UniProtKB/TrEMBL annotation:
Residues 19-302 form the ABC transmembrane type-1 domain. This is ABC transporter, ATP-binding/membrane protein. Gene3D superfamilies: ABC transporter type 1, transmembrane domain, P-loop containing nucleotide triphosphate hydrolases. PANTHER family: ATP-BINDING CASSETTE SUB-FAMILY B MEMBER 10, MITOCHONDRIAL (PTHR43394:SF1), ATP-DEPENDENT PERMEASE MDL1, MITOCHONDRIAL (PTHR43394). Keywords: ATP-binding, Cell membrane, Membrane, Nucleotide-binding, Transmembrane, Transmembrane helix, Transport. It is a multi-pass membrane protein. It comes from Geotalea daltonii (strain DSM 22248 / JCM 15807 / FRC-32) (Geobacter daltonii). The keyword Protein transport does not apply. InterPro entries: AAA+_ATPase, ABC1_TM_dom, ABC1_TM_sf, ABC_transporter-like_ATP-bd, P-loop_NTPase, Type_1_exporter. It is found in: Cell membrane. The keyword Amino-acid biosynthesis does not apply.
Length: 581
């Protein structure tokens, strides 16, 4: 039950709907409970001497009216409570989404996309069923049990005690089974999460799977996970299937005892026939709620297991947080790095960066080059605080970046990552994503600077062309240039290009860099590239290896060192000659 404690706040928000639903449930059950009593009065009136106060037809009419009113009020009770469950589902979904937007890259690098989607869909559905249909039946069962047992006791205390003899044993058995249901529900949700993740991964990697003819292997892998999910569900079904007969058997045994004991009392004259019929009517009303208890327990355990998974998201904490005491700062582009070391997953044995110290003045162009895994991307990702940074390591305009509000810091930085992500929208909308309320002129100007404008104009719908999911309809180079245009539209004080031209040829790269030369102006520009041609005009070039700066200087100075930079330069010149040949 502790897993469900977070739901109290949501239920309290909809308490008006729940109280209204409770009122309607009292109404519908009141008329339902009236029917056996009217039947008792009708039967007793037949055995009375003389002329009865009301004829059987009168009681039949009242029974029909009670049944009609019960049905009408039942509609209102169900819709009110089920709608409350839907509203709470909406509120939880909004909170989950808002929470996800506050989490940082370390969280998303740990979690699977399919698992997150499974929590939003399947786990949230289980919670909604608990708060809607489950709550409806919990309240309804409580009302029926209390009212029916009270009326049965009014008719005969002894007969009521006989009817509930099997119940204590039944409750003990069900309690033990419900604990097993909770554990199995958690396993089922985890299996479903694996299944969803597998589907999401295979859909995203459809091109790779087909290119390597791995359809059969992936089908087999999916079948294995699906089979495990099936077995988990079958285990739950077996428990649920055993629970329902147990609940039914308790009701049947109670009925059998009542027929034997009550029949004897009617024969002996201790109980009227009308009382006996009404008692059995109320006992019959307990059969369905008793059977529903098993289903309610199943809903409760599934909802608790699902809520425990949702709580993991709602309670997750971002490692990159807003400063407790933000410092006022105007970001111009002066960057200072002091003895910076960094490792992913807080693993000091494999640092991504080691003892980096650097000063970048406003308007300076910094180039970074090095082999794969040398720490180039790690360094530039820390500037907008995409990953946590220790205090006193990175300063922008003299202020520790951990004291700068995240929104202000990231709005001042235009970051173009290696892997360009495009939304399933138009090309124009993807570019405009960089600035809220961007005009068409601003979008087109950014596209021209990024060198994507000629390609866009060749599309039939120009800037209104839909790019498909993840920009699937565009080439790698077109996606990269669209991402560049999106960053340029921000008009940032600091522009970071993390090898964003790797998918274009050298000539196109030269054209784009020439367009950007005028755009740079007084902006601080950091360019990560494996092509030295993109770095020639930089004021300072860093050569990195194994997380350290091994060489630094401008293009001419590094060539004169005859070190690693010069070796890379010779290699690329040779490659260009071979390609030209």
């Amino acid at each position: 039950m502790s897993e469900l404690s977070r739901l109290y706040r949501y239920v309290a928000t909809c308490r008006g709907a729940y109280f209204t639903g409770l009122f309607w449930l009292f109404g519908t059950n009141g008329f339902a409970l009236l029917i056996p009593w009217l039947l008792k009065l009708a039967i007793d009136s037949l055995g009375k001497q003389g002329t009865p106060m009301h004829s059987p037809a009168w009681y039949a009419l009242l029974i029909m009216v009670s049944a009609l009113l019960q049905g009408v009020i039942r509609i209102f009770s169900r819709t009110t409570l089920l709608h409350a469950g839907r509203r709470i589902e909406y509120m939880i979904r909004e909170d989950l989404y808002a929470k996800l937007l506050t989490l940082d890259l370390p969280y998303f690098s740990r979690e699977r996309t399919g698992d997150i989607m499974s929590r939003f869909a399947n786990d949230l559905t289980n919670v909604r069923m608990l708060l809607g249909f489950g709550m409806l039946n919990v309240i309804n069962t409580a009302i029926v049990y209390v009212a029916a047992l009270s009326l049965m006791g009014h008719i005969s205390i002894h007969l009521t005690l006989c009817a509930i003899i099997p119940f204590p044993l039944t409750i003990l058995i069900v309690k033990r089974m419900s604990a097993s249901m909770f554990r199995r529900s958690q396993i089922i949700q985890e299996e479903l999460s694996r299944l969803t993740s597998k589907v999401e991964e295979n859909v995203s990697a459809a091109m790779v799977i087909k290119s390597y003819c791995r359809e059969d292997a992936e089908t087999g892998s999916f079948a294995k996970i699906s089979s495990s999910y099936l077995e988990s569900n079958m285990g739950m079904a077996r428990i649920r299937g055993a629970m329902i007969p147990i609940m039914a058997a308790s009701g049947a045994m109670g009925t059998l005892i009542v027929l034997f004991v009550g029949g004897s009392r009617v024969i002996s004259g201790e109980l009227t026939l009308g009382d006996f019929v009404a008692f059995n009517g109320y006992l019959a009303m307990l059969v369905w709620p008793t059977l529903m208890l098993a289903w309610i327990l199943n809903l409760l355990q599934r909802g608790a297991a699902s809520m425990s998974r949702l709580n993991e998201v709602l309670e997750a904490k971002a490692t990159v947080r807003e400063p407790a005491q933000p410092a006022p700062v105007t970001i111009n582009g002066n960057i200072e790095i002091r003895d910076l070391s960094f490792s992913y997953n807080d693993n000091p044995l494999s640092p991504a960066l080691s003892h980096i110290s650097l000063h970048i003045s406003k308007g300076m162009r910094l180039g970074i080059v090095g082999p794969i895994g040398s720490g180039k991307s790690s360094l530039v990702r820390l500037l907008p605080r995409l990953y946590p940074v220790a205090d006193g390591k990175i300063f922008i305009d003299g202020t520790d970046i951990n004291q700068i509000p995240l929104k202000q810091l990231r709005e001042a930085i235009g970051f173009i990552p290696q892997e360009s992500f495009l939304f399933s929208r138009t090309i124009g909308a993807n570019i405009a994503y960089g600035k809220e309320g961007a005009t068409r002129e601003e979008i087109e100007n950014s596209a021209r600077l990024a060198g994507i404008a000629p390609d866009i104009l060749r599309f039939p719908d120009s800037y209104e062309t839909l790019v498909g999911e993840r920009g699937v309809t565009l080439s790698g180079g077109q996606k990269q240039r669209t991402a560049i245009a999106r960053a340029l539209l921000k008009n940032p004080a600091i522009l970071i290009l993390d090898d964003p031209l790797s998918a274009v040829d050298a000539r196109t790269e030269e054209e784009i860099l020439a367009n950007l030369a005028d755009y740079y102006g007084e902006r601080t520009v950091i360019i990560v590239s494996h092509r030295l041609s993109a770095l020639r005009k930089c004021n300072l070039i860093l050569v990195m290896d194994e997380g350290r700066i091994v060489e630094q200087g401008n293009h001419g100075e590094l060539l004169a060192l005859q070190g690693r930079y010069a070796a890379i330069h010779r290699e690329q010149l040779l490659r260009m000659e071979i390609e030209g040949y």
